[in-house]
């Protein structure tokens, strides 16, 4: 029997306190060996004037226990408040978001009987870096960052999860037909790491058709691993089509800490009425019990919960005349789960957990890769230019290049417009002007700076530059559409 494990608990806002109370009651009745440190986060903290929604003392608790059981919180409307979820995930390095999405037919109505998939979403990168800029009157930009270590960690995590949980297939969704470098890296790392797991089937779908297939035939999937944005969207779709957002729990796993929660929000309109379904938070708690080395408790709770659902004790959100036996409130539901402790479901598949199963521990990326041989061969200079004639800009910029850095093309929103553009192409006030070393031999930073000096002296507003490199001789940049 393992020793008592300290965990940090936040009761949250809206329905949070009710469902957290219900879950802790069930976990304790099931014999959870936990010692609770409570912290305050969310609405009250935001409204006290802390834009992060969390006090420094709360971080101390989290850094001490490294396990966070979190009820949903309300993010106040209006500007200036930072999402606490994003802050917690990033500060604690919780890179893997694990969301099992399971149908409980015929006991909970679903269009997809048999659905049983796990979404593993990358949690820290992609468009969520929050690096956004307004560059011109007409153009705003958000940087999409996909890294090799980040991709390696999440993809290896997905394969380890599959292996440890007896899952047969891992599918990746990307849009690498369009984003050849960023999503292309994610896909390539998926292929590389997948090769180390010969017993697991692998497949890759372009995210649009993959998402359509998942919404139509979710039972065709097993584990799906996704970059952050696609994962954010598709994990909600998957939870919803499984039956109800009220049923899904989620784990956020990092090297130093882990956070367990429901996927739904604080449902303020349902708060304080003993109505809310505590199941999502409870299933998050089940993953937490596995994570802290108490799989016996996780198994008891999960099977009791399945038996309760199967026996028809349902909160309002899943209650259906003819299927359910009794409509129960939050507290009564928790009481029913406790009464079912020790029981297993008869029709639904009972679960079993061991020390080796459930939520996989964080895995590390290989940071010892030798650096590539990197050569600077050009620069993209982005201009804010209010006129609309690309040929005029092209002819003027040509004279600013020299024998080491010559203008090779201009694109507008990625579409090549000079030389040989078409008058039909719509242009905004944001021009990417590519200067390249004509023979692709390396240039120096000084040559780039000298070019920028000439561009500025000629009266152009350069809003940013991107250096153009080769890595081991391979171009580290894409060509313009039509180049
Ligand atoms: P929500 O998930 O709170 O509610 C969506 C719908 O689902 C509502 O109809 C609600 O009544 C129902 N619902 C949600 N959980 C339920 C449960 N356990 N039992 C029964 N019904 C349930 O989403 P929202 O209304 O968009 O957001 C409300 C607040 O929650 C917002 O302030 C939002 O920022 C916050 N939020 C927090 C988290 C989090 O803390 N992890 C996640 C999402 C939203």
UniProtKB/TrEMBL annotation:
Keyword terms, alphabetized: Glyoxylate bypass, Magnesium, Manganese, Metal-binding, NADP, Oxidoreductase, Tricarboxylic acid cycle
Coiled-coil annotated residue ranges, if any: none
Alphabetical list of Gene3D superfamilies matching this protein: 3.30.70.1570, Isopropylmalate Dehydrogenase (3.40.718.10)
Domain spans labelled Isopropylmalate dehydrogenase-like: 6-337
Cofactor(s) needed: Mg(2+); Mn(2+)
UniProt xrefs under SMART domains: Iso_dh
Protein origin, superkingdom: Bacteria
GO molecular function: isocitrate dehydrogenase (NAD+) activity; isocitrate dehydrogenase (NADP+) activity; magnesium ion binding; NAD binding
Zinc-finger as UniProt keyword: no
Catalytic activity reported: D-threo-isocitrate + NADP(+) = 2-oxoglutarate + CO2 + NADPH
Name of the featured protein: Isocitrate dehydrogenase [NADP]
Gene name of the encoded protein: icd
């Amino acid at each position: 029997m393992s020793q008592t494990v300290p965990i940090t608990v936040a009761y949250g806002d809206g329905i949070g306190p009710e469902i957290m109370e219900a879950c802790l009651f069930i976990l304790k009745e099931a014999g959870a060996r936990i010692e609770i440190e409570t912290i305050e986060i969310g609405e009250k903290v935001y409204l006290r004037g802390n834009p992060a929604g969390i006090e420094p003392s709360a971080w101390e608790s989290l850094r001490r226990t490294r396990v966070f059981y979190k009820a949903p919180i309300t993010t106040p409307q209006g500007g200036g408040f930072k999402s606490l979820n994003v802050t917690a995930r990033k500060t604690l390095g919780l890179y893997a978001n694990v969301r099992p999405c399971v149908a409980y037919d015929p006991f909970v109505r679903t269009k997809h009987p048999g659905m049983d998939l796990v979404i593993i979403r990358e949690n820290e990168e992609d468009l969520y870096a929050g690096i956004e800029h307004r560059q011109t009157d007409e153009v705003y930009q958000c940087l999409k960052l996909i890294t090799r270590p980040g991709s390696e960690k999440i993809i290896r995590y997905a394969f380890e999860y599959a292996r440890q949980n007896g899952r047969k297939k891992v599918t990746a969704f990307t849009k690498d037909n369009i984003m050849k470098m960023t999503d292309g890296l994610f896909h390539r790392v998926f292929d590389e790491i997948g090769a180390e797991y010969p017993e697991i089937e692998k497949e890759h779908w372009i995210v649009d058709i993959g998402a359509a297939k998942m919404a139509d035939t979710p039972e065709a999937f097993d584990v799906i691993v996704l970059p952050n944005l696609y994962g954010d969207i598709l994990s909600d779709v998957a939870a919803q089509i499984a039956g109800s957002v009220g049923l899904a729990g989620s784990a956020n796993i990092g090297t130093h800490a882990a956070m367990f929660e429901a996927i739904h929000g604080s449902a303020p309109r349902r708060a304080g009425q003993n109505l809310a379904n505590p199941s999502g938070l409870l299933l998050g708690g089940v993953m937490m019990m596995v994570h802290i080395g108490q799989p016996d408790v996780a198994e008891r709770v999960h099977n009791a919960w399945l038996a309760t659902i199967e026996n028809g004790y349902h909160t309002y959100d899943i209650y259906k005349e003819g299927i359910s036996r009794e409509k129960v409130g939050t507290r009564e539901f928790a009481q029913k789960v406790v009464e079912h402790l020790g029981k297993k479901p008869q029709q639904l598949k009972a679960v079993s957990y061991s020390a080796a199963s459930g939520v996989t521990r964080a895995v590390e990326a290989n940071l010892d890769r030798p650096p590539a041989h990197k050569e600077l061969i050009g620069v993209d200079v982005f201009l804010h230019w209010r006129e609309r004639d690309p040929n005029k800009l092209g002819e003027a910029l040509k004279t600013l290049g020299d024998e080491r850095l010559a203008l090779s093309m201009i694109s507008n929103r990625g579409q090549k417009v000079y030389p040989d553009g078409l008058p039909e192409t719509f242009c905004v006030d944001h021009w990417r002007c590519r200067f390249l070393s004509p023979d692709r031999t390396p240039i120096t930073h000084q040559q780039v700076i000298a070019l920028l000096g000439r561009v500025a002296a000629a009266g152009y507003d350069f809003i940013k530059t991107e250096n153009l490199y080769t890595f081991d001789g391979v171009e580290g940049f894409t060509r313009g559409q039509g180049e």
